Q: What sequence folds into this?
């Protein structure tokens, strides 16, 4: 039989061997890879500068990634200052340049930013410009959306936290405020390094108005700031400011301040100033109202200082609460006569009576018992003439004349609170030494530990204690101060707190005018005290500057003390001790 061949496939339908197809494919791939490799060698090896120039021509953008600023808190974690969501408005000048004048006018109307600098940014020769920083989220979003509706291109937003002061004016004189670019005042400035953290950054390439997906990209994440927790009690601070402001207004005074201190720890629970300001809008208030008068004002303490003079005499054993003093109508002392605030003939006061009636003459006669330098040494030990270093920028250290400069006249005047100056917290800490049984505990404003912008380490972790008076002298002084608020013996019954035994002292001092550097005829009145007197919990110091109602320390500052002390005792649930007030004799 004859064999037959299989039929041939139609012409053009023959695919060829699989091996042939593979070989052809490999050749094509190899040729393509060779082209890419040659180009890569050219760009990265033979001509890298041309590659960088091309990228730069397309656009290399670097933007900040803002850190969230740490909060400033009260002792219970309530915020005086914190950061809320905000945005920055940015521009791509390549897209905004063509309509720059129209966009600049639009932004001026909606954001109240200057026209000329904004116009320059919108026309800048780069791909990224900051237009407005720390804009509330709702405002920034609305502005950019409105710009897009008008056909304006090139505006966008980025995250940028906004500083907020939810407490408004409460604690503002200490907390301070933050400006557009840097902290400007108060704790915001003093502890800026801790609060601000470290901003991050992002760097990437753009081309044709868009980010290049495989272009250069580097991100450094921000490090958020650390919170600053103070010793202040926001609610007590609010109440103290409220009472103080009303008193300053009622007395038609220039200003005032009040300090509330924990008697045992020295922690400041409230430091109030009047007038104050809203930290959210500080530019609406006079510059003089932006700082803390309790820390920065220099003034003479007046008769409150007599407590320090007499307690020093008690500690040295030079007087007792019953020491008898003959008090003449006036006391001729070398350069000028010394008078009391009240007119009298020759009277017979005990040392207790000298405190209860606030007699300058009796105090000076008692101070004659000091040896040279002794009173100076005690006042330095009480902390006068030295900064408290609690972390308040611009704190004054006051002025205590050097021991070598003291004359008899100098000691006479200092003994009853003139010819030396103090700040409010410094004086409160001195009075608190008596409340704390003769041990001075350094005041503190920050809980834990923190470092100021000048490198000073502050806070409750660094509190110091030093015994200044014997326990006996402190108790004797306390009993004498109780007679100050006694309606039958003292000059400040309005400072009494119902149900509690109060120890206190009034003060009235001639004030030095800023213009003349001399006593200008105005006065500062004050009251300092603590309660419960037999087991002190709080020390409060109130100063009213230049009251025009004719009142003294007992009638003007005393009621402020009583209201604040009553509130503090109730807030911290301090029950009356049931002790009876002192009955030490004031006359003989």
A:
């Amino acid at each position: 039989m004859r064999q037959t061949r299989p039929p041939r496939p139609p012409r053009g339908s023959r695919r060829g061997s699989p091996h042939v197809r593979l070989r052809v494919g490999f050749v094509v791939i190899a040729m393509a890879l060779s082209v890419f490799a040659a180009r890569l060698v050219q760009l990265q090896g033979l001509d890298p500068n041309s590659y960088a120039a091309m990228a730069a021509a397309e656009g290399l953008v670097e933007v900040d990634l803002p850190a969230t600023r740490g909060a400033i808190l009260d002792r219970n974690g309530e915020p005086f200052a914190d950061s809320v969501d905000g945005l920055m408005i940015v521009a791509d000048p390549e897209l905004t340049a063509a309509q720059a004048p129209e966009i600049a006018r639009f932004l001026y109307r909606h954001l109240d930013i200057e026209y000329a600098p904004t116009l320059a940014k919108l026309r800048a020769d780069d791909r990224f410009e900051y237009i407005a920083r720390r804009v509330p989220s709702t405002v920034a979003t609305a502005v950019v959306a409105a710009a897009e509706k008008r056909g304006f291109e090139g505006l966008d937003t980025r995250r940028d936290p906004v500083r907020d002061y939810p407490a408004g004016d409460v604690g503002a004189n200490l907390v301070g405020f933050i400006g557009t670019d840097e902290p400007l005042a108060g704790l915001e400035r003093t502890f800026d390094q801790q609060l601000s953290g470290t901003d991050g950054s992002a760097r990437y390439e753009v081309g044709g108005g868009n980010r290049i997906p495989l272009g250069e990209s580097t991100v450094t994440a921000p490090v958020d700031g650390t919170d600053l927790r103070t010793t202040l009690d926001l609610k007590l601070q609010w109440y103290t400011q409220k009472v103080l402001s009303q008193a300053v207004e009622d007395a038609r005074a220039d200003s005032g301040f009040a300090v509330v201190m924990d008697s045992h720890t020295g922690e400041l629970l409230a430091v109030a100033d009047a007038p104050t300001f809203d930290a959210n809008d500080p530019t609406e208030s006079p510059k003089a109202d932006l700082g803390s008068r309790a820390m920065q004002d220099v003034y003479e303490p007046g008769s409150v200082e007599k407590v320090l003079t007499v307690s020093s005499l008690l500690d040295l054993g030079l007087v007792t609460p019953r020491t008898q003093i003959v008090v003449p109508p006036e006391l001729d002392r070398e350069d000028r006569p010394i008078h009391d605030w009240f007119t009298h003939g020759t009277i017979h006061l005990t040392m207790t009576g000298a405190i209860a009636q606030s007699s300058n003459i009796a105090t000076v006669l008692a101070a004659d018992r000091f040896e040279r330098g002794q009173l100076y040494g005690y006042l330095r030990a009480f902390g006068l003439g030295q900064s408290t270093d609690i972390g308040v920028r611009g704190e004054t250290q006051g002025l205590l004349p050097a021991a070598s400069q003291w004359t008899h006249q100098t000691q006479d005047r200092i003994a009853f609170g003139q010819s030396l100056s103090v700040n409010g917290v410094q004086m409160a800490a001195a009075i608190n030494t008596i409340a704390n049984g003769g041990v001075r505990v350094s005041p503190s404003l920050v809980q834990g530990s923190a470092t100021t912008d000048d490198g000073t380490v502050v806070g409750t972790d660094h509190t110091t204690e030093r015994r200044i008076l014997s326990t006996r002298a402190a108790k004797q002084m306390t009993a004498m101060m109780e007679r100050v608020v006694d309606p039958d013996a003292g000059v400040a019954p309005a400072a009494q707190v119902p149900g509690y035994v109060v120890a206190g002292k009034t003060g009235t001092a001639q004030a030095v005018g800023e213009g003349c550097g001399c006593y200008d005829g105005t006065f500062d009145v004050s009251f300092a005290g603590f309660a419960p007197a037999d087991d002190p919990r709080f020390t409060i110091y109130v100063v009213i500057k230049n009251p025009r109602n004719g009142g003294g320390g007992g009638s003007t500052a005393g009621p402020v003390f009583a209201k604040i002390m009553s509130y503090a005792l109730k807030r911290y649930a301090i029950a009356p001790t049931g002790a009876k007030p002192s009955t030490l004799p004031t006359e003989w």
About this structure: The longest strand covers residues 519-531.
